Amino acid sequence: MRVLHLDTGREWRGGQTQLLHLVRSLPGEVVLPADAPLRPALEAAGVRVHGIRARTSLGWAVALRHLVADRQPDLLAAHTSRAHGHALLAATGRPVVVHRRLDFPPRWCSRPKYRAVDRFVAVSQRVAEVLRQAGVAPTRIEVVHDGVAQAARVWGRAEARRLLGLPVRPRLVGAAGALVPHKDHQSLIRAMVGVDAELVIAGEGPLRDALRALAQRVGVRLILLGQVEEIGALFGAIDVFAHPSREEGLGQVVVEAMLAGVPVVSSSAGGLADVLAAGGRGVPPRDPLSLRDALRDALRDPGPVASARAAAAELFTVEAMVRGTDAAYRRALEGR
After folding, report:
1. Is 260 contained in some domain?
2. For the whole model, what pTM was predicted?
3. What is the residue-level pLDDT of the chain in tens, covering all 336 positions?
4. Helices (H), the chain
5. Cα(205)–Cα(212) distance, rounded to whole angstroms?
6. Same structural domain for residues 303 and 176?
7. Are residues 88 and 178 in the same domain?
8. What is the DSSP letter of 146?
9. Do residues 306 and 161 both lie within one domain?
10. Helices (H) and strands (E) in the chain — how many of each?
11. Which of 33, 149, 231, 291 is the most buried (most CB within 10 A)?
12. Do residue 140 and residue 165 come from a single domain?
């Protein structure tokens, strides 16, 4: 089975990590922007990569048409929303599988391109529900959770804090994610008022200055780390991991925190409900008061982190993700 994967992202987030895990185990070639940060890692893994420099949809469509004619794949797999449309234009009769990670409904004008897809791989039950509500037949949806590799290194508290430049003594609540509205770090900052700990957030984004200003206004000690290369160091450094997202396809970083043995407090938005089935404290999204109470509880009593770690290790393996994705691809081919 020759698979051509399409990813239009110019960032490295959860979806790009899953694509890297996937092509390390299943043969396939990858099409992505020439300057995508994922490209060096793919090439280092021995994956054939096709970099596209086009900036317009028409440019992508033309380049993909040529690639499909040259490489003759059996199937096209789209890993981003834009790749979804590009794949349909370039497929020339081949089956198209779309990996869907977003838990908000497609716009009404996008519904036709959802009907044209042979199969969807949804990252959580919530994402699958959104697709069904948009008119996608349940028989065309496979739920395949992210596969999360356990960290190769376990960080000690003092070493991790020293690496990240964090203070040694105070208790720390940590978060990780892009500094964008739907991650709702604003609610987390408000929830920290009256919590006996400092807040540290790993990630970059357009809300950096606004979050810093909010923290100063409400009197919360906030440390913004920017992008952190070694996320395991963050988990080693903190006492509780918080994830306040208003929208989330699954929440790969929450699984990573569980695997690191860190107590988790998370909103139950979107696919996070699938993750919280393994353990952790769930709170309603957009609810700083409930989040504050849960953080205080977790700092006082971490809870059964060992059982959450074991459950996460069983539910969210790379091997299960690869098997599920391979099965979805084969069903798409059989359907044709």
Report:
1. yes
2. 0.88
3. 999 999 999 988 889 999 999 999 999 999 999 999 999 999 999 999 999 998 888 889 899 999 999 999 999 999 999 999 999 999 999 999 999 998 888 887 777 888 899 999 999 999 999 999 999 999 999 999 999 988 778 899 999 999 999 999 899 999 999 999 999 999 999 999 999 999 999 999 999 999 999 999 999 999 999 999 899 999 999 999 999 999 999 999 999 999 999 999 999 999 999 999 999 999 999 999 999 999 999 999 999 999 999 999 999 999 999 999 999 999 999 987
4. 14-25, 39-44, 57-71, 81-90, 111-115, 125-133, 157-164, 185-191, 208-218, 231-237, 252-259, 272-276, 288-300, 305-315, 318-335
5. 12
6. yes
7. no
8. P
9. yes
10. 15, 13
11. 291
12. no
User: Which amino acid is residue 239, in one-letter code?
Assistant: D
How do beta strands 198-202 and 222-226 pair?
Answer: parallel
**Does 27 map to a domain?**
yes
C-alpha 287: how far from chain center: 22
- Do 173 and 258 share a domain, yes or no? yes
Please choose, from the candidates 99, 98, 102, the residue with its C-alpha nearest in 3D space to the C-alpha of residue 117.
98
What crossing angle do the helices spanning 252-259 and 14-25 adopt, rounded to 10°? 70
203, part of any domain = yes
Examine the domain organization and report whether 166 and 97 are in the same domain.
Answer: no
- Domain ranges, residue 182: 157-315
Instruction: Determine the Cα–Cα distance for residues 187 and 183; give it in Å rounded to an integer.
Output: 9
Characterize 260-293 residue by residue with b for buried, 16 or more Cβ atoms within 10 angstroms of its Cβ, and e for exposed.
bebbbbbbbbbbbbbbbebbbbbbebeebebbbb
- Alpha-carbon distance of 63 to 53, in angstroms, equals 9
Q: How many domains does the chain have?
A: 2
Are 31 and 4 in contact, with CB atoms under 8 Å apart?
yes
